[in-house]
Amino acid sequence: MRHDANFGRMRGRSGLRLAGAVALSALLAAAGPALAQQAPELDALVASGDLPPLEERLPANPLVLNADSIGTYGGTWHMGMRGGGDNGLIVKTVAYEGLVRFDQEWKTVVPNLAESWEANEDATEYTFHLRQGVKWSDGTPFTSADIEFAVEIYNDPDYPAGSWIDNVNNPVHLEVIDDYTFKFRFDQPNGMLMDEMASVNGIHITSLQKAYCSQFHPKYNENAAAEAEAKGFSSWALYLQDRCAWGWETIRFSNPDLPTLYAWVIDQPLSANASHVTWDRNPYYWKVDAEGNQLPYMDHLDMRVSESIEELTLLALNGEIDFQERHIATNTNKPLFYDGQEAGDYHLGEIIPSASNTLVLQLNFNHDDPVKRALYQDKNFRIGISEAIDREEIVDVVFTGQGEPFQVAPRPESPFYDEELAKQYTEFNPESAIEHLEAAGLTETNGDGVRLMSDGRPAKITVDVISSLRPEWIDILEIMQLQLSSVGIEIELNNIDRTLFYDKRPGNEFDAQVWAGDGGLEVVQEPRYYFPANDESVWAWRWAQWFNGTRPEIAEEPADWAKEQMELYKQIRSSSDPDQRADLMKQILAITKEQFPVIGVSLMPNGYSIIKNNLGNAPETMFNAWLFPTPSPMDPATWYFK
Amino acid sequence: MVQFVIRRFIAMVLTMFAISFVAFAIIQLPPGDYLTAYIAQLSATGEQVDPKVIENLRQQYGLGEPYLVQYWKWVSGIMVGNFGQSFEWKRPVSELIWGRLGNSILLEGIAVIAMWLIALPIGVYAAVRKYSLGDYLATVLGFIGLAVPNFFFALILMYLSFTWFGETIGGLYSPEFENARWSLAKLWDFLSNAWIPVLVLATAGTAELIRILRANLLDELKKPYVTTARAKGLPEWRVILKYPVRLALNPLVSTIGWLLPALVSGSVIVSVVMNLPTAGPMLLRSLTTQDMYLAGAIILLLSVLTVVGTLISDILLAWIDPRIRYGGK
């Protein structure tokens, strides 16, 4: 089946946009590229012969971005990034250029560098057709050879990098058909490939230019090892990594020579000592607006690198940031930014987070202690805890009334939203809580009023938390601590560092860990709390290992219901039909509802973005997630200064 | 004296070795290593990392080796000026730290000088004019300076400059000078930006110096040799500056060695808050990501500062206080 003509599934504006895009590019092709315009600053370069004329730089069929209005060229987009490897901001702003991408509503996968694609029935073969005539920022053509090189590098045992391309369980096998056509083949069905490729992870495959990067590989350059040594690197692989880091690696943005496919190219690179990272327009960018003008509209990006959140906050208040959400748009800062709108000449946009929950309490189902293991796996125990939490109080105290009691479930904006799943056991009901705890065998208490487990030890749960990541976690847990102690459950807070947090998992040295509720919108792609799916399914870490086969030495066979979910998920992977996949996911969620594996607190409240008032085409409302790397899907290339 | 300096120098080198060993051990103490931290980040973004890939990386980075082997590699590299690679930046550490250490030393050096220049006259005045209005004023201001945490003072200044002048304070240079070579214009730009962090860094120290100097000087002023000097008709300023102040400085001078590292560590939070490109934020960051060669190099160099500072204070002490002379000459 072909996906490129998949308009039936597309709804709303983006469907119209794409239809318009195809019609317009046909028109462009008919009328010839004479229609197209470029940024005035490039005119002189073309006139002097330093740059080929626009029609030689644009592909035959440029991607047309239909924004609300046609913009004007010029200006610098100011934003702020954290010091020390804030590669996330760069990735989410400029580096999201994969073969395909998500539409603005995060509903369907739409063409990007690939013009179209087909998949076979059992999702083991995908054929891609590249947009012809796309050029890297250094002017060399982007072809199947670059894809081939990327696949080769990812699979090179001397060059360790992990991604879906060299996924141990189901690696990509590539077959190049011609310069613009190639085929991915998989040993096992890979029905979710298109979603993966449209997510932020999709950029891995388009991040390595063969012409430039091959010079650091011994297969293409016999002196590669010696040259690496001369530069002070102990192996060619480290030198290659330094020059050609993949996808969204931090140091990828510290090499200004590296050719890219982004709308802007690096001028001042990211480094340990950089105080600004700056970008200039890419004269070879392959997207145009509805009138055929080459994008982007803005000449430059300027990212202020700052260790100081306070400084960034003040910059935004002072109107020195044009668009931003990351780092500064916190709950606590909201009143400040709200009040500063007039003085700073900006306004606040709406951000819908992808996370469903403010805090997910994950009890360790695979605990080494058999008594705790049995207790944590007892659904009555979890219901008891959940009903003993007064969520309204937490929402009022910690989130100033924003949000509502919520379990770990798809968000209301998601097509998978199920009110019963989202609301079960969220009612504050101490009597029922006590009944459930007693049903779980916690009938006796000690002198301190703490219930005793079957072997006579008090029911004390040590909860690992990283408060530096989200300070509100500690606030929530401290309230929960009081609430739970009134039903005889003791919670001990163990506030630790991120490395220790992760280090405890393989050793199975934890009672419980907390995190935010990822997977509220990207339900199929990030099912960590719905079944033991991946390394972030901390509540059943060893079951997840069994499912993934990554650490066989500590894997444990899951309970039957979890196995059933895993079976369903395998079917999702082997289906190339989105409707069928959605149907299967609903079956998984039904089991999640029945089993109630993790405990949530409240719906993650909406965030906000800071938008300068003179910024055109900027999104007033958008989703925010890592896999949907906002604001990039909202096409910053079409933003402009009025 | 020369003999003394040579002896101290040999002791210094040995101390440095001990420090490097301990520093490296401390960095290795937290569970996990750079790769654990790295994988934690990848994993949180939804990426699955194959344990075999991690094992390969661990080999590549030499993280799988025993402590002593890793330590030896590191230390033997340092002797030829190679501080190892920063994992996070994939760059030689020596390439990364000098600029930041330079900024640190410059900034904190100026802060120390500012501190002394402000504290000495005020301290002397406060002691000589004991219980006068000026003394009380200096005491009150001094206590406020001591009591307000530096980072908080920095925040207040940032807030005031924003609300009063609409200026965002941060960094040490204006954007146009950040990557420029040193010139008079850049120096001026630096000074016009640096006075705020210098002020912040110097306040607490100044207050402390004033108190110590005042107390020491009060002790000395009562001693008979001061009375004798006065009786012999020396002008008052000479009486005070030539003898009692010199003696009162003794404890201050002997702690110069501690001043440098205290300033550096004290400036970490201020640097983070004010976004100063000094070694502090880099150290903090490298410790959280367990970028151990980078962290190790910074800790080691800070220790060098301490040791050198101690040497300086010993020499100064011998110079200002004739009672302390080494080697009998």
UniProtKB/TrEMBL annotation, chain A:
This is ABC transporter substrate-binding protein. It is found in: Periplasm. Its main location: periplasm. The keyword Signal applies. GO terms for biological process: peptide transport. PANTHER family: OLIGOPEPTIDE ABC TRANSPORTER, PERIPLASMIC OLIGOPEPTIDE-BINDING PROTEIN, PERIPLASMIC BINDING COMPONENT OF ABC TRANSPORTER. Belongs to the bacterial solute-binding protein 5 family. InterPro entries: SBP_5 (IPR039424), SBP_5_dom (IPR000914). Keywords: Signal. GO terms for molecular function: peptide transmembrane transporter activity. It comes from the Bacteria. Residues 1-36 form the signal peptide. Residues 108-520 form the Solute-binding protein family domain.
UniProtKB/TrEMBL annotation, chain B:
The chain crosses the membrane at residues 9-29, 105-128, 140-165, 194-213, 247-273, 293-320. Keywords: Cell membrane, Membrane, Transmembrane, Transmembrane helix, Transport. Pfam families: BPD_transp_1, BPD_transp_1_N. Gene3D superfamilies: MetI-like. It comes from the Bacteria. Residues 101-313 form the ABC transmembrane type-1 domain. Belongs to the binding-protein-dependent transport system permease family. This is ABC transporter permease.
